[in-house]
Design a protein that fits this description.
Helices cover about 50% and strands about 0% of the residues. The protein is an all-alpha fold. The protein folds into 2 domains: about 40-75 and about 110-154, no CATH class; about 75-110. The relative contact order is 0.09. The model has no long low-confidence stretch (mean pLDDT about 85).
Length: about 150
């Protein structure tokens, strides 16, 4: 659907007016400050300076995810039993999973190092620490029906 020029111009004027009002507001963001080091707390860091904090948060996220799964309809049957975990084909699959996982980790090092201070791109940067936990929920925001929580956060 094509928007008529006069309607597009009206929308642009409304946007400009709204932006001017926001900038004039006493609550508008002010970049004339001494700055803050707080943003560094949100990232792993170019040299993994926040690795200990990320590990603590990942363990907490995995435990929370496990708690949620165990308590979501707790009377539902368990699928992966202790007997299943002892089966030879299961153990073989776990070994293959670990080998494949380590191979994946090695291969992923061919990625662009967005975390590095040497990378000066404008579209990508390091993943925030909370972002690691969000991945456990598979937030593929394709449709709201499949991402009812993460779409709201996006």
């Amino acid at each position: 659907m094509e928007i008529p020029r006069d309607a597009a111009s009206q929308q642009l004027n409304q946007s400009r007016t709204g932006f001017a009002r926001m900038v004039a507001s006493p609550d508008a963001p002010n970049l004339n400050t001494a700055g803050s080091r707080a943003v560094e707390a949100w990232f792993l860091g170019p040299k993994a300076e926040n690795a200990d904090e990320l590990e603590r948060l990942i363990v907490e996220a995995v435990r929370d995810q496990a708690f949620w799964r165990r308590n979501y309809h707790p009377n539902d049957p368990t699928h992966i039993t202790e007997a299943t975990k002892q089966a030879p084909d299961y153990l073989e699959a776990v070994g293959a999973l670990r080998d494949g996982f380590r191979g994946l980790l090695a291969f992923l090092k061919k990625s662009v190092p967005f975390f590095s201070m040497r990378y000066q791109g404008h579209m990508n940067w390091d993943l925030t620490l909370p972002g690691f936990a969000a991945m456990l929920y598979n937030p593929n925001n394709v449709a709201f029906e499949g991402s009812t929580a993460s779409t709201i956060l996006a």
